[in-house]
């Protein structure tokens, strides 16, 4: 039983499990498209960390990066993909299954 | 987990509230439209008091006098919609530069459906359609006897050009914005000023203008609600940064 639980914890999607990436995916799941600046403000991550984590999520196909211009200023926005939504939802189910039932 | 729920909820609320320059767009549109109506009212009243018919009622004057719409009124009516668009775009850019944009998943936000129900715009559209049809069909002198002469009696090329400009502008607006509040405002302002371009001011014109004003009041209420909600969300976002 103990082994099964340990195995189950080990099976958690590590791409989603990392706190910064989990925060990014959570924010993106609440909207159609979110700009870098808003993500930065809401997650409290540094610019560098946000960029790195977003790149990792994009490489796994969980998010999509959109580049546009606001006037002459380049603007980066992100969108969660269908894969990303599924991964986040599975992660939530997984975590719930690991937590003890509330008394 | 609680923190994640909070930022998820914050994002959802912000995406909905941010539309239409966080309510400032609706307020800006209302200020412009009401200023225009005051300007128009002043013009009509000045013409009425200067007329020999000043002993009669304003309503009688409107129905019996052949008062042409001056070009500046037509130009002002068209520019309200254009200025509103520029204002909303500018205010939205300011907000997005400050907090960044989030596009809602459901473009027809629940709060929009609550404040400005779709049937209202449809009803207004029917009134304008009826009015424009009547203007096109009955703008000869004989029917003036029945429908009443009006403030906007001359159906000339500038009226058609005015309609065309307003329609084209509304279409451009609809294609360049993704937010339903801004699109709703574009529709309302276009419908509101259509009668001003038309040849005959009759009862239905007044209904259109009155309905449009009610519509603007609904948008203003929505704007105020959005703006206060936006300020609250802004405070929550600032608090998040302090706590982090």
Description of the structure:
The complex is a heterodimer of chains A (103) and B (244). Chain A contains six helices and three strands. Chain A has helices spanning 2-10, 14-17, 19-29, 36-43, 47-59, 82-98, and strands at 33-35, 63-70, 73-80. In chain A, a hairpin with a 2-residue loop joins strand 2 (63-70) and strand 3. Chain B is mainly α. Chain B is 80% helix and 1% strand. Chain B is built from ten helices and one strand; from the N terminus they run ααααβαααααα. In chain B, helix 1 (2-22) runs antiparallel to helix 4 (71-99), helix 1 packs antiparallel against helix 10 and helix 2 (24-50) packs antiparallel against helix 4 (71-99). The longest helix of chain B is centred in the C-terminal third of the chain and has 41 residues, at 203-243. The model of chain B is unreliable at 142-153 (pLDDT under 50). Chain A binds chain B through residues 22-23, 26-27, 29-44, 70-71, 75, 77, and chain B through 4, 7-12, 14-15, 93, 96-97, 99-105, 237, 240-241, 244. Strand 1 of chain A pairs antiparallel with strand 1 (102-103) of chain B, so a sheet runs across the interface.
Largest sheet, strands/sense/barrel of chain B: none
Find the biggest chain interface.
A-B, 24 and 23 residues
Counting copies of identical and different chains, the oligomeric state is heterodimer
Task: Give the strand tally of chain A.
Answer: 3
Distance between the termini of chain A: 21 Å
Overall mean pLDDT of chain B stands at 79
pLDDT < 50 runs, ≥5 residues of chain B: 142-153
Radius of gyration of chain B: 21 Å
User: What structural class results from the helix and strand content of chain A?
Assistant: alpha+beta
Distance between the termini of chain B: 16 Å
**Average pLDDT of chain A:** 89
Count of β-strands of chain B: 1
Gross geometry of chain A:
elongated
Sheet having the most strands of chain A:
3 strands, antiparallel
The helix count of chain A comes to: 6
Overall helicity of chain B? over 70%
Shape designation of chain B: elongated
Q: In percent, how helical is the residue content of chain A?
A: 55-70%
Protein structure class of chain B: mainly alpha
Output the number of helix runs of chain B.
10
Cross-sheet strand order for the largest sheet of chain A = 1-3-2
